[in-house]
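Pair request: fold both.
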Amino acid sequence: MNDVRELKQYVWAHARAQGVPLSHYEDLLSRITSDVDGADGSWTREWVRAGEALERDGKLLEAGQYYNLARFPFVAGPERAEALERCVSAFDRWRREAGGIERVEVDTPTGRFGAWGTGLSTRDKQPLLVFMGGIVSVKEQWAPLLPVLRKLGVAAIAAELPGVGENPLPYDDKSHRLFSDLLDAVADRADVSRTHLLPLSFSGHLALRCALGDERIRGLVTVGAPLREFFTDPAWWSSLPRLTVDTLVHLTGVPEAGLQDHVRGWAITAGEIASLRIPVGYVACSRDEIIPPGDPALLREHAREPRVVEFDDVHGAPEHSREMQAWALLATLRMLGGRRVPRALFGTVLAGQRLGRLLRSRA
C-alpha cells in the first residue's frame, strides 16, 4: 500500500507528460483518501471510475490515460492489474480506429513482450527509433506519438522496461539485452543498422549498457538516467523517495535491505562511457531527487559526443515538459541525419525564448 500523499505528488508529473491538465483531475484527487484495494475513495477505484466515464463518452485515448494512472506506480493487487488491462484495451481500440499503429511481439531467451510500432515495412525499410519509459511508465503513455514520428520518415516502436506494464521479463543485470532482441525482431521491417533510442530514466541506463556492445545503435537521448553514483553512493541511496525504492523492490524481487548491494554492479564506469562511439543526449535536472548530479557529470566529462541540457526542475522535468520533450526529439532527429523538423510539430514550443536559448547554448 502506497502513501497517498506521495502518489499525488508524483502522478502530477506523469499526467502532465500525457497532456492531462491538473484542472481535469484536481477534484478526483480530492476524493482519494487511501490506497486500499476495493475501497471507496481509494486511488485505483477513483481513477478507474473517471476512466469509465470517459470511455462511455467514446474518449478512448483519454480513458486509457486515466486507467494508466489507476495502475500507477506498478501493478500490485487485482485492482491495479485490471486497471492495466483496461489501459491496454482502451489504447488498442483507439489505435485500431486511428490507424497507423500495429502490435509488435518480441521473443527473447527469457520470454516474450509486446510493443507498439509504426512505419515497419519489408519493402521500404526506414531507420528505427525506439521509445521506452522508466520504472513507472507504460508504453501506452508514449505510443500516441508514433503516428507523428512515422511522418518524419522513421519506423518507431514504443516498448516497456522489464517488469513494467505488459513486459514480463525479469529486471536484472541482463535486462539491457532486450534492446538487441527488439532489433532482431524487426530487422526484416526496419533499417536497424541505423537505430536511435529515446529511453527515459532507468531505461536510459539499460540503453547505454546495450549500446556498449550493439553497434546497430547509432545514438541515444535519455532523460534522468542513472549511470554510476545512483548505484554506488550509499548516502544518496538513503535519501531516495519511498515510491522509487518500493518500485525497485517490486521489479527486482529483492528485499529493500539487500537492494543496493544487489544493483551496485549495474553501475556504468567512466571507461565504458568513454568507449561509446555514438552521440549521447542527456536531460538533467538541477533538483533531481532520484538521480545524483554526479551521473550527468560523468557523461559530460567522459562521453565523446555529449549533448547535455539541464533544467531547474525535479526528476523528469515536469515543469518544463514541453521544452524537455521538444529538446529530446530535436536532438534525436539531428542524430538521425538532420531531417527537417516540421513547423507544425514544434513551432509553438520553439517559439519560446527558454527553449531557444537552450538549443543555441547546449545542443
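--- second member of the pair ---
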Amino acid sequence: MPDPIPDPQRDARPTLEAVAARAGVSRATASRVVNGGAGVRQPLVEQVRKAVDELGYIPNHAARTLVTRRNGAVAVIIDEPEFRIFSDPFFSRQIRGISRELTAHDAQLVLLLVEGSGDFDRVTRYLAGGHVDGVLAFSLHTDDELPAIIRRFRVPTVYGGRPEHPAPGAEAVPPVPYVDCDNRGGAREAVRHLVSLGRRRIAHIAGPRDQTSALDRIDGYRDVLPDGDPALIVDGDFTAEGGARAMAQLLAARPDVDAVFVSNDLMASGALRVIREQGLRVPEDVALVGFDDMESVAEKTDPPLTTVRQDVEGMGRLMVRLLMGRLNGDTGEWPASVITPTELIRRASA
C-alpha cells in the first residue's frame, strides 16, 4: 500500500497563533499563559489551556527559554562512583525526594555522576553551556573541585550535607546554602543508648574522613566518650564490605569490644555478618547501632538493626525548595541552610 500523500496543513505543528485564535485571545496573552507568566485573568487562562489541549500544542522550548530565561532543568551532581550510587539505598532515597519535588515545580532532573578527576572537565563544559537553572550537589569530599567550578559559573546551588570549612590560611569563600541532618546529635544519641545498656568498651566504625558527615559522627561519639581508647575507632568507607573489613580489624585488635556504633547502615550490615561469623551473638555479646535507617537494610538484618533515622527523602525535597526559592527571588522566605532532626530507632541489635 503506497505511503499517504503528505498534507502540510494536516501535519503542521499547532502554533501559538493557532492557540490564541482558538482561545479568542491575543498572542501575547496566550504566550503568558503557556510560559507561566502572571497577570492573566483566570477565565482567559482556562480558555488558553483548553485550546492547548484541543490542538495538542507543544511549547517551543527555545522560545520559552528566551521569554523566561529559565531552562526548566536542574543538575544533580553526585561525587561518587557509579557502583555506589546504584548499590547504596541512601542515594536512591535522596534522588527520589529531589525528583518528586522537581516534578511539583515542573522542572527536569539532569543527573551528573563524577567518578574521577576526568569527569570534572565534562561537568565544567556542561555548566558553562548554561543548560540548567541550578545545581543540587551532594556527597562532596574535602578535595572536591565541584564547589570551585560552581562558583566560577555562578550557578545557584544548594548542597546536600554541610560543606567543608576552608583550612586555616585558605582563601575565604562565601557561605553556601545546604541541607543536612544533625549528624553529631544523632551520633551522641546512639552512643548514649549503648552506654545506657551498660556497655563499657564501645567502638566506632567511622565513615570516610574526607566527608563532613563522617567527621560529625566521630565528634558525636567523642562527645559521649571523650576519654575513649583511640584504638576503638576504625575507618570504613560507607559500604557493607568496608564495614566487614573494619569489624574484622576491630575484633582482631580488641576482642573484648562489647558494643559498636557504626556510621551508616550498610557498614553495620557488614559488621554484623563478621560478628556472627566469629561466633559472637548480637546483642548479647556485641550490641550494634547504625545510622540512616534504610529500611531495606536495617529491617532485614538478623537481628533487625537499631539505628539513627534521618529523613533522607525529605532532605532531598528541602534542597529543591531552597533552590527554587533562590531562583524565584524569594530567599527571604527560606533560611540559608537547614539542619533536620534525627531519631534513634530501637530494634533488636541494641
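Observation on the second member. The longest strand covers residues 73-78.
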